[in-house]
Amino acid sequence: MQPKIFLKILTIIHTTLTAGLLIFAIFAYYQNQDFIARMDRQSLFTYIVPIVAAAGYFLSQWIFKKQLEAITEQEQLSLKLGKYQTASILKYAVLEGPGLLALLAYLWTGNALHLVIALALIVYLFVQRPNAEKIKRELPLNLEEQKQFDELI
């Protein structure tokens, strides 16, 4: 896989997932007539959404790190890029799930806490946007692969 094509595909996947969550957040906000800024201790979502969001955040980092640790310097550049793409998509998906849960909880309950959690996850997902420098920093590339990566981007 060529680095330029790899980066383009990964950027499209990331942008699609982020935009999907953002569009759903806008839809949920305009669809819901309530904006409750108090804790509803009777709602199960009040407890589940923050726990799932925190778990998703930490799990996404852990999975990504473990996937990158499995990449050896001896592998070819195309294989390294493929593994990085898989790790990134898993990280995005693990963040997307809690974001959707938080937005659904907001849509159903109108509790602002769920919307705030969803927006925080969307912002974090947006910050995870792939770029060439970040990929070079996170992948174990030798000097020849770094040069090849730079020439092909």
Structure description:
The structure is a single chain. By secondary structure, the chain is mainly α. It has one domain (3-152). Helix content is 78%, strand content 0%. The protein has helices spanning 3-31, 45-69, 77-109, 112-127, 132-138, 143-152. Helix 1 packs antiparallel against helix 4 (112-127), helix 2 (45-69) packs parallel to helix 4 and helix 3 runs antiparallel to helix 4. The chain starts with a helix and ends with a helix.
List the helices and strands and how they pair.
Layout: H1 3-31, H2 45-69, H3 77-109, H4 112-127, H5 132-138, H6 143-152
Helix pairs in contact: 1-3, 1-4, 2-3, 2-4, 3-4
Keywords: Membrane, Transmembrane, Transmembrane helix
Transmembrane segments: 6-32, 44-64, 105-127
Protein name: MFS transporter
* Rg, alpha carbons: 18 Å
Work out the helicity level.
Answer: over 70%
Shape: elongated
**Total domains, how many?**
1
Number of E strands: 0
How would you classify the helix and strand content by structural class? mainly alpha
Secondary-structure element series: HHHHHH
The total of helices stands at: 6
Describe the largest sheet. Answer: none
Determine the mean pLDDT.
93
Uncertain stretches of 5 or more adjacent residues: none
Distance, first to last CA: 12 Å
Beta-strand proportion: under 5%
Key words describing this protein structure:
mainly alpha, 6 helices, MFS transporter, transmembrane, transmembrane helix
